[in-house]
C-alpha cells in the first residue's frame, strides 16, 4: 500500500495543473530556501506557467527562453520584460502525459524551428508524437506563435504513464528521442516486455535522421527499411527514460531511468545497450517480472549508479536525468561533473565517470543540493551554469557560483546638444561575460543621480559650470559592479566620428585583412586625429569571453590581419578627443567565418578537438583557415577496439588540419575485436568469406555476419566463430539474449560426427550440437550439466530436441539418440535433472511418461548384484530391468513390501511383470514369487 501511495503521489504531482494568475517572466533575484554548497546561489525566473505545469525549456540564440507546460502551453520569456504565451496545443494530460519535451533547432536563427513531444487524444485513445513547428515572429522579431506542424515520429498509446519524453536536436541534424514502456505501473504487466523487443517502439532510446528514419550507425539499422522501428533503435530495456542528455565527450546518451518497486538508476548508454527492464531494475532481478518466460536469459547493462526508494539522504523516488557541467565559473571540483536530481525528494547530486563510461566519483553523501524544488529538466545557461525546471514552483532555477562570478565591464559614450545643455548617455555597450542582465546606476557629476535606470539616459545640466565628470556603474544580479567615467562639457559640441567598416554581416578567415577607415570633425576644433585600438576577444563560450589587447595606431585608416587565436573575434575602436576633453569612440566587431567540424568514429570513442575545450570535445564551430590538431583515443570506449587511422588522413592518432571553406566531418577508424581476429587470420577469412553486414551491438555482445557464418564478441568470452546449422539454431533460438555469447568456435566432436558451440549467459552454460541425423538442438542449465556429467555424447548421444516443457508445466526435458537407443534427461525443481534411457525409458514411455510414474528421481543405476538396472520416480515408483526379465514397473504398496524384503536381494529377486489387477487384487510377479495387495489385507508376499 505504501508503494502504491508513493506512486500515486508521484503521478499526481506531475499531473497537477494548479490555477492562478500568470506572472511576468522576470528574474526574481536570489533564492535562499535551498541548502547549497558555499558560494552557490539560486537565481529564479518565473515561467508564468504556475505550479505543477513546467516541463521543459530551451534557450534561443538571443538568450531568451521558450518554456513548455504539461497542459500544452508554450511561452516565450524575453531576457528582460514580460513573457507571453505563444501557443496552446491540444494534449492529453492524464497522469504522466501532456506536453513533455522541447528542443530548439541548432539552426533556429534561420529556420525558427523547434521540436515538441506530446500525447494527443484521438477517437477514444491517444497517440504519442514528436513534431517540428515553426515559430512565427512579430514586427519586432519576437516569437508570436507556432505554425506548420510536421509529424516526425508517432506511436499509439496504451496507458497514461511512461510516454514520449525527451527530444534532443543534435548539431549534425539528427534527433535523439526517448519513450517509456507505456505499461501499467500498478502491477506486473507483461506488456512491459515490449521494452525488450527492437521491433516495438516502447522502452527505447531512438536516434533519428531529420526526416524521422533511423541513422545508419544504429545497431539494428536495415538499409532496405530505414523507417522500421528496429532501424531507429539505439538502445532498449528502459522503463521510463524521462530525461536524458548526450554526453558531449562520449557522444552517448546519459539517462535517468525512473524505477518501479525499489531502484532508480543513471545509465551511460552504449550503442545497442540493453538496460534490462522489465526483467531487471538496476542490477537486481525484478520481482514478478524476472520469472516470466520473456525474461529468460535477458542480459542487463548495469547502470553507472543506482539508489533505492525511501526518505534517507541518499534515497529518492523519481530520478531526473541531467547534464554534464562544461562551464568554467564553478569550482574545479565540478568541472566535468554530471548533475542529476530526484524531483520527488527535491535534491541534486553530482557524479563523475571516465571515458569508458565507468563511475569514478559516486554522488556525495549527503547530497550537496537539497530542498531545491522538483527538477524535471536540466540544461546549461549561456555561460554554462546549471539551470533546471522546477515543476513544483513553475520557475527556472539557475545555479550560479558567486565566487566565480565575472565582474561586468562598464562602457559608455555621450552626445551633447549645446543649445539645451542636454547630454545623452549610452551605456548599452557595457558587457557582462556571464550574460547576466545588468542594472545601470548613473551619476551625472552635478549632484544628480539615476539609480536602477536603463542603459540610455538624457540629462540637462544647469548653466554656470562647463565641465563635469559623469560615472556609470553597472551591476549584475550577484552584486558585482563595473564603472567608467565620461567627460562632459554641456556647452561644447560632441566630436562627430564617421567609421567605415566591412559591414556587420562580414566574416573573416584567419590572416584575412580587416580594413577600416574613419574621419572626425568637431564644431569648435575642426578636424581631429583618429586613434585606433584593437583587441582579440576570446570566447570559449559566450559566457567566458575575455579580451587580449592587440595592436593600435593613428591615422585615417587601419588594417590588421584577422587573429589565429581559436574561438575569437576582434574589436576595433576608433577614438577622438576634442580640446574640452570630450571623447567619442566607435567600435566594430569582426566576426570569424566559421564552419562546423565534427569528429565521428566507427566505434564510440573519445575524439578531441583540443583547442575547443579539451579531452572529449568532438564537435565545434571553428574558424576558416585555422590550423590545429585533432586527436583520437588509441582504444575505443569498449576497451577493446583499437584505432587504425583517419579516413583520408594519417594513421597517427593526431592529425594536424587546416580548416577549409566548408563544414568538415572527420572519421576515426577503429578495428573492433572482431575485426582484429578476422584481419589477423587468413584461414578464418577463407572459411568465413567476406563480411555481408556492418557489425551489430546487442547489449554486451557484438557480432558481424559474413558469407559463411558470424563472429561474436563479448568482453568475457572473446571473439568466437559460429557457423552452419549451429548458427541457424542459435539465431532461431534467440541468440545471445537467450544463450549468451559463444565461448568457443564451432568445433567438431572427437568422433567426427557433430559440430557444436558452447555458450554462457550470466554464468549459465549452454550448448548447441548438430549432426546430420539429429539436426541442431540447444541444451542448457541443469539438463546440460547432467548431460555433461554423463560424458556428453559419449553417454546418452546427441540431442534430438531443444529443451522443452512438459504438458503439466512442471518439468523440462531434452531427448537424445545414441545409435538406435533413445534417451532423455528430465528436470524439475523438486527432483533435479536425471537421465533415463534404453529399456527402462521405453517402459516409462509406455506407462505415459511423467503422467504415469512421475519424474525420474535418479539416473539409471546398477543393482548391487550386477544383474539389473533401475530408475526411481517421483511418485514413489520404480522400473527395474534385467536381460532375463525385461523392464517392469513396481509401484506403491507392492514396491514398499518388496523394499522391506530387501529388493532384488530378497527371495523374490527381480519383477517379471508390471503391476496388474485380478478380481480387485493388485499383483506383481517376481522371479521367486509374487506380491499382492488389497485394502483389507495390505501387501502380502508369497513364493511360487
Automatic annotation (TrEMBL):
<dbReference type="InterPro" id="IPR000601">
    <property type="entry name" value="PKD_dom"/>
</dbReference>
<dbReference type="Pfam" id="PF08310">
    <property type="entry name" value="LGFP"/>
</dbReference>
<keyword id="KW-0732">Signal</keyword>
<dbReference type="InterPro" id="IPR013207">
    <property type="entry name" value="LGFP"/>
</dbReference>
<dbReference type="InterPro" id="IPR012938">
    <property type="entry name" value="Glc/Sorbosone_DH"/>
</dbReference>
<dbReference type="Pfam" id="PF07995">
    <property type="entry name" value="GSDH"/>
</dbReference>
<dbReference type="InterPro" id="IPR011041">
    <property type="entry name" value="Quinoprot_gluc/sorb_DH_b-prop"/>
</dbReference>
<dbReference type="InterPro" id="IPR011042">
    <property type="entry name" value="6-blade_b-propeller_TolB-like"/>
</dbReference>
<feature type="signal peptide">
    <location>
        <begin position="1"/>
        <end position="33"/>
    </location>
</feature>
<feature type="domain" description="PKD">
    <location>
        <begin position="406"/>
        <end position="488"/>
    </location>
</feature>
<dbReference type="InterPro" id="IPR013783">
    <property type="entry name" value="Ig-like_fold"/>
</dbReference>
<dbReference type="Pfam" id="PF18911">
    <property type="entry name" value="PKD_4"/>
</dbReference>
<dbReference type="GO" id="GO:0005975">
    <property type="term" value="P:carbohydrate metabolic process"/>
</dbReference>
<dbReference type="InterPro" id="IPR022409">
    <property type="entry name" value="PKD/Chitinase_dom"/>
</dbReference>
<dbReference type="InterPro" id="IPR035986">
    <property type="entry name" value="PKD_dom_sf"/>
</dbReference>
<protein>
    <submittedName>
        <fullName>PKD domain-containing protein</fullName>
    </submittedName>
</protein>
Amino acid at each position: 500500500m505504501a508503494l502504491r501511495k508513493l506512486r500515486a503521489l508521484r503521478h499526481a504531482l506531475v499531473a497537477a495543473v494548479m490555477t492562478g494568475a500568470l506572472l511576468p517572466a522576470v528574474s526574481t533575484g536570489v533564492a535562499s530556501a535551498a541548502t547549497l554548497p558555499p558560494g552557490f546561489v539560486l537565481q529564479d525566473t518565473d515561467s508564468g506557467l504556475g505550479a505543477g505545469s513546467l516541463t521543459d525549456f530551451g534557450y534561443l540564440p538571443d538568450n531568451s527562453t521558450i518554456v513548455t507546460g504539461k497542459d500544452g502551453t508554450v511561452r516565450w520569456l524575453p531576457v528582460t520584460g514580460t513573457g507571453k504565451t505563444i501557443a496552446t496545443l491540444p494534449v492529453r494530460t492524464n497522469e504522466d502525459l501532456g506536453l513533455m519535451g522541447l528542443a530548439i533547432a541548432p539552426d533556429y536563427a534561420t529556420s525558427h524551428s523547434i521540436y515538441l513531444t506530446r500525447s494527443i487524444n484521438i477517437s477514444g485513445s491517444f497517440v504519442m508524437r514528436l513534431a517540428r513547428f515553426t515559430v512565427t515572429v512579430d514586427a519586432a522579431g519576437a516569437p508570436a506563435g507556432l505554425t506548420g506542424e510536421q509529424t516526425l515520429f508517432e506511436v499509439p498509446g496504451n496507458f497514461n504513464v511512461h510516454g514520449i519524453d525527451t527530444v534532443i536536436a543534435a548539431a549534425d541534424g539528427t534527433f535523439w528521442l526517448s519513450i517509456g514502456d507505456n505499461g501499467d505501473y500498478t502491477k506486473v504487466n507483461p506488456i512491459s516486455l515490449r521494452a525488450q523487443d527492437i521491433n516495438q517502439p516502447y522502452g527505447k532510446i531512438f536516434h533519428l535522421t531529420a526526416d524521422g528514419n533511423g541513422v545508419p550507425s544504429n545497431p539494428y539499422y536495415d538499409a532496405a527499411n530505414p523507417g522500421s522501428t528496429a532501424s531507429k533503435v539505439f538502445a532498449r530495456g528502459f522503463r521510463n527514460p524521462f530525461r536524458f542528455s548526450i554526453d558531449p565527450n562520449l557522444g552517448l546518451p546519459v539517462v535517468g531511468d525512473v524505477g518501479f518497486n525499489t531502484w532508480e538508476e543513471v545509465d551511460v548508454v552504449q550503442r545497442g545497450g540493453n538496460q534490462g527492464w522489465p526483467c531487471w531494475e538496476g542490477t537486481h532481478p525484478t520481482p514478478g517480472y524476472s520469472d516470466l518466460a520473456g525474461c529468460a536469459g535477458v542480459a542487463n547493462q548495469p547502470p553507472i549508479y543506482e539508489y533505492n526508494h525511501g526518505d534517507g539522504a541518499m534515497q529518492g523516488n523519481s530520478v531526473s536525468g541531467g547534464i554534464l557541467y562544461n562551464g568554467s565559473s564553478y569550482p574545479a571540483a565540478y568541472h566535468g561533473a554530471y548533475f542529476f536530481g530526484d524531483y520527488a525528494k527535491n535534491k541534486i547530486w553530482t557524479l563523475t565517470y571516465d571515458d569508458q563510461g565507468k563511475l569514478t566519483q559516486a554522488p556525495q553523501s549527503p547530497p550537496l543540493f537539497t530542498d531545491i524544488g522538483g527538477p524535471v529538466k536540466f540544461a546549461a545557461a549561456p555561460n554554462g551554469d546549471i539551470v533546471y525546471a522546477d515543476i513544483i514552483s513553475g520557475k527556472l532555477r539557475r545555479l550560479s557560483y558567486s565566487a566565480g562570478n565575472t565582474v561586468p565591464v562598464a562602457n559608455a559614450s555621450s552626445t551633447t546638444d549645446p543649445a539645451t545643455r542636454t547630454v545623452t548617455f549610452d551605456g548599452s555597450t557595457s558587457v557582462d561575460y556571464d550574460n547576466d542582465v545588468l542594472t545601470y546606476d548613473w551619476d551625472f557629476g552635478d549632484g544628480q543621480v539615476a539609480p536602477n535606470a536603463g542603459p540610455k539616459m538624457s540629462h540637462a545640466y544647469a548653466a554656470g559650470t562647463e565641465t563635469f565628470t559623469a560615472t556609470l556603474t553597472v551591476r549584475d544580479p550577484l552584486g558585482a559592479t563595473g564603472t567608467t567615467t565620461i567627460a562632459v562639457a554641456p556647452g561644447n559640441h560632441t566630436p562627430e566620428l564617421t567609421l567605415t567598416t566591412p559591414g556587420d554581416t562580414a566574416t573573416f578567415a584567419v590572416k584575412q585583412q580587416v580594413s577600416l577607415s574613419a574621419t572626425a570633425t568637431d564644431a569648435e576644433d575642426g578636424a581631429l586625429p583618429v586613434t585606433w585600438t584593437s583587441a582579440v576577444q576570446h570566447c570559449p563560450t559566450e559566457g567566458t569571453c575575455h579580451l587580449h589587447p592587440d595592436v593600435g595606431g593613428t591615422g585615417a585608416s587601419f588594417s590588421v590581419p584577422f587573429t589565429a587565436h581559436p574561438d575569437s573575434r576582434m574589436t576595433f575602436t576608433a577614438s577622438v578627443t576634442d580640446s574640452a576633453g570630450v571623447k567619442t569612440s566607435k567600435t566594430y566587431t569582426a566576426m570569424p567565418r566559421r564552419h562546423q567540424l565534427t569528429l565521428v568514429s566507427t566505434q564510440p570513442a573519445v575524439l578531441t578537438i583540443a583547442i575547443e575545450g579539451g579531452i572529449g570535445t568532438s564537435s565545434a564551430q571553428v574558424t576558416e583557415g585555422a590550423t590545429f590538431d585533432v586527436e583520437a583515443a588509441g582504444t575505443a570506449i569498449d576497451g577493446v577496439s583499437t584505432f587504425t587511422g583517419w579516413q583520408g588522413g594519417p594513421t597517427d592518432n593526431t592529425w594536424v588540419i587546416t580548416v577549409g571553406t566548408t563544414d568538415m566531418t572527420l572519421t576515426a577508424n577503429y578495428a573492433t575485436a572482431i575485426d582484429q581476429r578476422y584481419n589477423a587470420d587468413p584461414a578464418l577469412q577463407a572459411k568465413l568469406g567476406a563480411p555481408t553486414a556492418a557489425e551489430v551491438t546487442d547489449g554486451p555482445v557484438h557480432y558481424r555476419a559474413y558469407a559463411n557464418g558470424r563472429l561474436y564478441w563479448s568482453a568475457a568470452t572473446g571473439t568466437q566463430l559460429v557457423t552452419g546449422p549451429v548458427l541457424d539454431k542459435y539465431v532461431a533460438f534467440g541468440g545471445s539474449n537467450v544463450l549468451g555469447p559463444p565461448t568457443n568456435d564451432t568445433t567438431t566432436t572427437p568422433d567426427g560426427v557433430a559440430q557444436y558451440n558452447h555458450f554462457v549467459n550470466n554464468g549459465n552454460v549452454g550448448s548447441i550440437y548438430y549432426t546430420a541425423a539429429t539436426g541442431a538442438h540447444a541444451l542448457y542449465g541443469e539438463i546440460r550439466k547432467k548431460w555433461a556429467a554423463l560424458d556428453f555424447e559419449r553417454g546418452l548421444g546427441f540431442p534430438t530436441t531443444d529443451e522443452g516443457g512438459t504438458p503439466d508445466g512442471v518439468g523440462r526435458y531434452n531427448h537424445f539418440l545414441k545409435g538406435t537407443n533413445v534417451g532423455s534427461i528430465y528436470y524439475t525443481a523438486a527432483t533435479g535433472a536425471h537421465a533415463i534411457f534404453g529399456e527402462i525409458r521405453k517402459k516409462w514411455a509406455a506407462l505415459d511418461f511423467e503422467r504415469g510414474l512421475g519424474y525420474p528421481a535418479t539416473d539409471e543405476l546398477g543393482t548391487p548384484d550386477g544383474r539389473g538396472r533401475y530408475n526411481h520416480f517421483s511418485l514413489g515408483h520404480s522400473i527395474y530391468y534385467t536381460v532375463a526379465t525385461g523392464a517392469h514397473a513396481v509401484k506403491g504398496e507392492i514396491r514398499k513390501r518388496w523394499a522391506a524384503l530387501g529388493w532384488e536381494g530378497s527371495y523374490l529377486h527381480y519383477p517379471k511383470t508390471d503391476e496388474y489387477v485380478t478380481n480387485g487384487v493388485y499383483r506383481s510377479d517376481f522371479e521367486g514369487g509374487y506380491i499382492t495387495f488389497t485394502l483389507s489385507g495390505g501387501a502380502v508376499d508369497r513364493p511360487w
